[in-house]
Amino acid sequence: MLYAKLQSYVGEEFLIKALPAQLSNFPSARGIRVMKCPNNPLIIGELKLSEELYQFSIIPHTELQIENQVVTKETILTNFSRIYIPCKECRTKHYYTFILPLREPLKYEAQRAAQTQFNRVHDKVLYAKWTQEDKEMLKKLILQFGYGRWNKLQQLKFANRTKQEIKAFANSLLRSIVELLVNYDLGAGIVNLIEENPDDPYIETNQKDWELQNLKQKLISISKRILMLAKIREFIKKFKEHQLKNLGIKDKSQLKWDYLLGFIPSSSFYSQRPSIWWTRKHDSDLIRGVYQYGYTNHLIIKEASDLCFKDLSTSQNYQEFPFPETLNKRVKKLVQIIQKFDGFYDFDNLAQSDDEEEKSWSIAEKQALFNLLCDYGVPIGVDGRQNWQELKDKLILKINKFDKNLNQLEKMVQTIRTRCEQMLMKHKEKEFLESDSSDLEIEQPPSSIGEIREEQGDEFQISYSDSQKFSKQTNMLHFIRKNILPQNQALFQQHIQQVEKELLIDIPEYDPKTHDIQIIITLSQTGFNGLQPITLSNINTIMTTEQILNRIEQLCSFFKKIRDQTNIKRKPELKDDQQKKIKPNSTGGVNEIQLPYQVSTSLKLVSLGRIIPSPAYHSEHNLFPVGYKSIRTHASMFTKGKRCQYTCEIQEGSDGKPLFKVTSEEDVENPIIKNSCTGCWVHIYNRINELQEHKKSKVTISGTDRFGLLEANVQRYLEELPNAEMCSKYKFKYRNVAQDF
């Protein structure tokens, strides 16, 4: 386990995994080599732990200074104690900081390990019963469902194993992860999950059992996932207990899942929604789905009969199921929101904190916004994000003295969308009750069957037909702008032959390749109310508004099926000529990849460059290698709606600082050179913004993201470059630098 660490003033970390431990000046099986100096003694000192008091101390073997005081005998060490080893020969000063874990669980684990030896005897008989395949399956299921889900694990794969057996091997897995973890906070959290009783069997830690050596770079993300699933388990458990106790529910099938996230204010859910139609109901069912069917099992979650996502496949509202990566991000976001309540979940309370915000809108303003959304939807900018400024500009044309900011506008759009979704759900429940009462010939109370009325305090009310119209038209516009039109209609062009074969139309000389794009662009630009009969290009045939709408519905339904099939699949494997060729080095890292390397559909890595360990060429989160080059595909600065390639480079500046250069393929003679990568891309975004009809008042962009420096694979390769370990400010994410030392 991890007891503490020593950190040098240049950022090197020396992990203390066993005690007592020698601080040495040479490689030692028992010690930690903290220096390489021929003029100092081989043994510097010895670290000890008093397990009764959980107190660390150091016994000096040579001259040492603790907190600027010379010590010659055993001295107590506290958190952040400063240790100095005097040396006249080395240019590097031997300053170290003694750092303890940030939380108590590791302390508890150490005491428990020392005090409960009777239940720490390795159960060889039990160990022999489990094959390597059993252990691999257990590891896989824990990463899908989390630690502590013993009933679920028995149900899925371990029906012939007892819960105690499963738990013993799961504990061994968690301890193995902690032993390799460098992150103290995560290690403490993992240790705190371990459940053990005196009579439980014990399986000792063995890295080979779990094949974690090959997963070192992923241990942090694995640990975060285990802790996230533990939080979901704890949250669902408390919800079930509350419902069964306070509502008198005896059958778990009667749990009111709509209350799961009901206590959280609506404003907490606005950011990072997987789609514009996404509501609190979808968030609740996503959390339920992960708990019930496993993390990343999105296809099962989508088709589960007890979740709301099953309706997407039959919906005529073009609500495409989000990508797996998008759903994973949403789950993490929801867990972060839940964690803010620190275990105090008021499941009885349905949050009303946004009521005052809605009251600040007049009835006329809400009605005008509703009508605009039904007609035009929420525009999409060149960056692929919702363009709230353009929506506001259009709303100003309809309302005099409209004074709401973009944040208020976004909240009201989501409020209207939620009210429409609730109305549609009420209608569905009403139909179910009516059909149920008819089939069973049971008379239902009058209140349960009848006209649906929205219960709102103001006069702005949304009917069922309004909700249908809103949902269908806004989702159709969003689907067209987000899926069919981007990247020069790439999705459309890819499937044009299939469109021509399957989507027939009764208009002579109609050319889908030309005319389908014409009517789709017309709808996107004018909205539904602006649609007029149009003359088809090249054939001078007039297409009526009804024909246009029918054809667009055909196209949206067709491409939604294609998109749904795409979204439930994992990312395709790279082709042979695109695969990175990796040679392991002595630290298990990466020495060589085949370049250029296609990182994503819009980013190609051309050169990694070389590390200069100067503070100016790295930060806490990024490395800036000289010679680094990537190619980013992005919107053009010169032609609206067109995309082009930008070559991004990092060069060595004359003043000891890096220069960042971006060259557009449309203007190679005039590269953009700035002192930061963000400076380059802000310049580009400002130029793109000037081309737009509805301009943003403020442009924000991450230059490091556009350069590709935030991509996980790129960061892995940069961290393995020579001299990367000498970048003192940089915090490594994938390379175990402490172990390298």
From TrEMBL:
Xref: PROSITE patterns: FYRC (PS51543), FYRN (PS51542), MYB_LIKE (PS50090)
GO cellular component: a single term: nucleus
SMART domains (UniProt xref): FYRC, FYRN, SANT
GO BP annotation list: regulation of cell cycle
InterPro entries: FYrich_C, FYrich_N, SANT/Myb, TBRG1
UniProt feature coiled coil, ranges: 392-426
Keywords: Coiled coil, Nucleus
Localization in the cell: Nucleus
Domain spans labelled Myb-like: 129-174
Pfam family name, one: FYRN
Origin superkingdom: Eukaryota
PANTHER family linked to this entry: TRANSFORMING GROWTH FACTOR BETA REGULATED GENE 1, TRANSFORMING GROWTH FACTOR BETA REGULATOR 1
Protein name from the UniProt record: Myb-like domain-containing protein
Organism from which the protein derives: Paramecium octaurelia
